[in-house]
C-alpha cells in the first residue's frame, strides 16, 4: 500500500481520529490509574504491595513487549496488529473493571500491557505509513498534540470517575472507546506492512528473558518491602539478575535481535539512556506517590489530586516544541544538565506538602518548578537519542529509549517504598505515609541530581545532518515521546 492518503481528505481525518483514539486509550490508563490507587486499596482491602503491582503489572508487559509489538506490525500488517491491540486492551480493561479482588486486577493489568504494546507503536506506524509524504509531518504533529491533550485530560477524568461512578469506570471507559475505534479502523485505515520483514524469526526469547528479568527483580523489591526478605525473595532477585545476563547473551548472539547490542557502541546513545533511567525513575516514583500523598495526607479528593498536577502537563504541551528549538541552537548539554536540577528542586518543594496543604502556597509552586524542569529536558533528551545513531535506526533508538523509561519507572515504583521505609499499610496512616513520602522525595531528588551530573559529563552537541524528532509537541509525563522509523516503519 503506497503512502498516498492526504490529511485534508475524509479518509485522512478518519485515519488521524482512529490512531489518536487508540493511542489515547493506553495513554489515559497510564495517567489515571495512579489517581484511583487509594480508593482501589480501600475497596479491595489490600496492602501497598498490591497497589504497586496494580501499576507495575501494566508497565512490566508494556515495557517488555513494546519493541516486539512494532515488529509484529511490520510483519503481519500494522492495521491488523493495531486492531488486535485495541481489542485486547479493551477486553483486559473489562476484566480490570469487574475484578473481584486484587489478584484478578493485577493479572488483568498485565494483559492490558500486552494490548498496549501492540497498539502504542502501531498507532504512530499507521500515521507514517498511510499519509502522503507532504502531509506526514503535520499528521505526526497533530497525533502527538492530540495525544498530549489526552494526557492532560487523563488525571481530571480519572479523578472525576473515582469520585463519581467509581474507580472501576477508569477501566470500563475503554470498552466503548474500542467499540468506536475498531470499526473505523477496519473501514477507513489502509493496511500496510514492511516486505523486508516478511521473513526471519522474531526475537521472542529475548523479549521473554527481558520481561522475566524485570518481573523477578520487581517481585523481589516489592516483597522485600513487605518485611519478608526470605529465601524466596533472595531467590527471585538472583534469578532475575541471571535472566538479565541471559538476555544480554542472547541478544549478542542472535542474527536479528530485538535489542541490537551494537547500537550501544555509540557512547552518546548509552549516556543519554543512562540519563533517561535516572530522570524517569524519579518521575515514576513521584507520580506513583504524589497523588496518594495528596489524598491520604492532605485530604484532597481524587478529582482535586488528579488536577493538582495538571500544570506540569500543560507546560509540556505549551512549551515542549520551543524547548526543542532552543536545544537545537545551544546544544543539549545545558538543558539536560539544568532540567533534572529544576525537577529535583520541584520534588524538594513537595516536602512542604503535608496535612491541610494549601494548593496555591504549597502544591502549585512545586508543580510549576517540576513542570519547568520537564519542559527543559524532555525534548532535548529525545533529540539527542535520535541524533546519536544512524538515521535509519532512529525509530529503534526511540523505542529503546521509551522502553528504558518505562523500565525505570517500573523499578522505581517497586524499589522506592522499600528504600523510603513504607510498610504494607503505610497508605492507611497519614502520619506514616507523610514521613515516608518525604524520604522518597529526597531519594528522587538525589537520582535527578545524579542524572544531571551524568549529562554534564557525557552529553555533547550532535553532528549536523542527524535525525531530528518528528513529534514536537509532547504532553506525557510518564515516558519520552515515541518516534517512528524513517521511511514509514516503526
Architecture blueprint of SSEs:
Layout (H helix, E strand, L loop, with lengths): L9 H35 L3 H29 L1 H20 L4 H29 L2 H31 L4 H5 L1 H15 L15 H22 L5 H23 L13 H30 L5 H7 L1 H21 L2 H17 L9 H29 L6 H27 L9 H29 L32
InterPro entries: EmrB-like, MFS, MFS_dom, MFS_trans_sf
Subcellular location: Cell membrane
Membrane topology: Multi-pass membrane protein
Question: Short description, anyone?
Answer:
Helix content is 75%, strand content 0%. It has 490 residues and is mainly α. This is MFS transporter.
Q: What do these coordinates show?
A:
InterPro entries: EmrB-like (IPR004638), MFS (IPR011701), MFS_dom (IPR020846), MFS_trans_sf (IPR036259). This is MFS transporter. Keywords: Antibiotic resistance, Cell membrane, Membrane, Transmembrane, Transmembrane helix, Transport. This protein is an all-alpha fold. It has three domains: 200 residues, MFS general substrate transporter like domains (Growth Hormone, Chain: A, Up-down Bundle), CATH 1.20.1250; 55 residues; 231 residues, Up-down Bundle (Growth Hormone, Chain: A). The protein is 75% helix and 0% strand. It contains 16 helices and no strands. The chain is globular, with a radius of gyration of 21 Å. The two termini are 16 Å apart. The C terminus is likely disordered.
